[in-house]
Design goal:
Keywords: Coiled coil. The protein has 127 residues and is mainly α. The protein has a two-stranded antiparallel sheet. The chain has one helix and two strands, in the order E-E-H.
Amino acid sequence: MSTHNAQLPDLHGSSPISYTPQESSSNDTSNPDAQSPAALETISQLRAQNTQLQEKNIELRIQNAQLQAEAESTEIRIQNAQLQSEAENHVAISEMQDRFAQQLKQEQPEYGWYFCIVCALIFWFCR
């Protein structure tokens, strides 16, 4: 703490009084009566600004949560589209297999008759 001693005359002007001013950091800030109006105004402004910043922080957190939900929703839609495409491919393959199997079933009786005729001819010639 720096000390500035100044000789001030007392009220009667007879003998000087020693005065040592205190540093500004040692002022009692807990007592509102001891604070200047400018300091009180600054504190009031800072509190108002702090409240605004807290409200803005809450707004940004809400927006962040909404954006995360939208991103998750978009990701789910993409995955759903991919799964739907895979399901459609499986259905198409299954339908093609069913058609092919039906064609084979329809053609088998013809091959069955041919087989019977060939066996009969072989049996006929081998006797």
